[in-house]
Amino acid sequence: MEERLTNLEIKLSYVEDFLNQLQEETVKQAKEIEKLKHDNKILTEKLKDVADNMQGDIPNRKPPHY
Asked: For the residues of 8-36, what is the DSSP string, one character each?
């Protein structure tokens, strides 16, 4: 009985360690996702500004071969 209890405690400690590692990785990924969302928003705004500025330079018509 004592051996079974010790084995369960060992397994529990491994599970707790794994859970802590998983939590740390999840937090890192959440921070990275937020950074990527922020970067994506900035790039989208810059692309929109470039498109707005070039609107007069590029005619909105089909090429002659159509």
From this structure: HHHHHHHHHHHHHHHHHHHHHHHHHHHHH
Spatial separation of the C-alpha atoms in residues 38 and 31, rounded to whole Å = 11
Q: Is the pLDDT of residue 21 over 80?
A: yes
Output the average pLDDT for the chain.
90
Q: Report CA Rg, the chain.
A: 28
Extract the tokens encoding 1: 């009985």
